[in-house]
Amino acid sequence: MKLVERPELDDPPLILREIIDCVRVAYTEAGMINADLSEFNILTDGRSVWLIDWPQAVRTTHPNSASLLQRDLHTVLKFFRRVYRVLPDESEVADYVVGRRATLRIRRAGPAS
After folding, report:
1. Of the residues 11, 21, 36, 95, which is catalytic?
2. What residues have CB less than 8 Å from 91, skipping those under 6 apart?
3. What's the DSSP call for residue 30?
4. Cα–Cα 20 to 30 A to 49, which of 16, 41, 42, 102?
5. 37: alpha, beta or left, given left = phi > 0 and alpha = psi -120 to 50?
């Protein structure tokens, strides 16, 4: 199921962490940035995730790589904030993805008042 369909997730912060870890592996190990990452091209069964639609991917050496990575992260994090009330810090996530940070904390917002 596509993430855009807003499926029930067993643990939204953990699912977001799995997505971010996939982006990090693509960046640090494969030298790739999806460049079009959004809830429309993330599949999930509620426990695991798969990032799809990589034809537009660029190398980390691409002149626009930093802004494309930032856009990918912003899009996914905004979706998780809005739909699942998960509140990651964008700059911490970006630092984690590119390897400037070894750990990452993702928290969920408390109940709405």
Report:
1. 36
2. none
3. S
4. 102
5. beta
pTM to 2 decimals?
0.93
The C-alpha R_g of the chain, in whole angstroms, comes to 13
* Residue showing tokens 């993330």: 42
Residues with Cβ within 8 Å of residue 60, at least 6 apart in sequence: 27, 31, 32, 33
Per-run averaged pLDDT (10 residues), the chain, 113 residues:
94 96 98 97 94 97 98 98 95 97 86 51
Predicted confidence at residue 113, as pLDDT, reads 41
Active-site annotation holds for 36: yes
Distance set, CA 62 to CA 9, 14, 58, 73, 103 (Å): 34, 30, 6, 17, 26
Residue 43 tokens read as: 């599949």
Q: What's the CA gap between 112 and 22, in Å, rounded?
A: 30
Question: What domains sit in the chain, N to C, each tagged with a CATH number?
Answer: 12-97 (1.10.510.10)
